[in-house]
């Protein structure tokens, strides 16, 4: 099997669309309500093909809550016997398959509706492991998990988060072990050829001036970057599985779980191939749902997170029919046989990555030229404020001294901390905001140079030698902007932000031209966190909070992990949790 990044992966910068031009484009699409409409077909087709009335609803609710008529035995062309069936060949499903087979499980079938296995990004968050140990990084597990709980309104199941915190270091070492001898561990600032396998600590080391111990929104050093992306590392795990006899059924759509009369254990899953033929795959031990999230299912988004259904989804992975794969198939199939969808509010992953200087804590104003928040927050809290602004638009403003100021900023996801003279010194292979910036683009083009945000036909930023001229270019009220900046400069001079409480060492005056302003509008949505309720052993629960025997969930199909907002204290935690929980549930399944 060959691996192609373009087939299954997409750079996080391209994914979130926050380069010199894409932020406004994504914002315009979000404001226009351009949520994908056709992506719910994957699961809904199972209902319509099985004879359920198209568009029917459950007690006046949305159609996806309507249990389809069972697919008739006479329509099933083939029965395949398995011990374990895993639905979904993404990071969590592949990790589960590998862990299960390495722990002695036999007769494992993995069902995937895309033409091959799936992945995204290059970031994996963990606590512990050899790389962090070698760098002398120690993360307080309880501090990290506690911050996640706070940012999620204390709604997650902390025991499920603890599984990640307690086992993710081991899991990441296990992840890399599949690629032993093929990768090197390097510094984030090292040059990169764009092809080889290189593992780096994200945003490490920190500038001493950043003083992260006093962060308003703490961010932990849990994230590793796997270059060129996660693809070749996962390919090696797939190879382990295939050599051990795991059967992968690609271009195969899971349509219904087999649970007679919605009572007793789950006995298997009915799937449909590209030709429209049904197969029943029996599971003598377990069915594991590793089917991902539902952000590309417009109906589910409108039902569960109506405040976020306007965001444009640019999820890159598509199934064998060309439709996006994250359509909530596992959640729907589970609910049809009595599983409980976790209580909300579900958590959209809509963290902003800011402008040319990322989410650094420079002055922010709205379209009226007025300051509205403490700017020293991460991309998700910022997006929450942005969503409530007039026209959902803000401007990030700073002056000519920015090159000396970024080293004082936070060092988390979306922050920029190092200025270098040449674009050649900005590391290649970046996903998201690079911690480094130059005036010019870097070599692989993944990190636009500072000047590209302000010069050229596609530049959205404006620059001027006076505040009056800047206000004119921004099309905001000159008097209001002038008053805002004068007040901000007073606070900076006093070293005390009486208005919004930003820490003094990140409170820089805007006083020496040229002055810069960059517009920030709605970001896009990556995934939406909301899954089936499980216990700590990944057993799916029913609406009476009882275990449904034989049914498990992992990854974004599992609930209890993130609620209200996708939290940013631990960058890469979504992939880290998929990897870690996949490893753990695979070992559990092997013991059945």
UniProtKB/TrEMBL annotation:
Top-level taxonomic group: Bacteria
Keyword Flavoprotein carried by entry: yes
Nuclease as UniProt keyword: no
Cofactor(s) this protein requires: FAD
GO biological process: steroid metabolic process
InterPro entries (alphabetical): FAD-dep_OxRdtase_2_FAD-bd (IPR003953), FAD-oxidoreductase_2 (IPR050315), FAD/NAD-bd_sf (IPR036188), Succ_DH/fumarate_Rdtase_cat_sf (IPR027477), TAT_signal (IPR006311)
UniProt keywords, alphabetically: FAD, Flavoprotein, Oxidoreductase, Signal
Span of the signal peptide: 1-25
TM regions (residue ranges): none
Start-end of Low complexity biased regions: 43-61
GO molecular-function terms, A-Z: steroid dehydrogenase activity, acting on the CH-CH group of donors
Domain called FAD-dependent oxidoreductase 2 FAD-binding: residue spans: 83-562
UniProt-annotated stretches for the region Disordered: 43-69
Name of the molecule in the record: FAD-binding protein
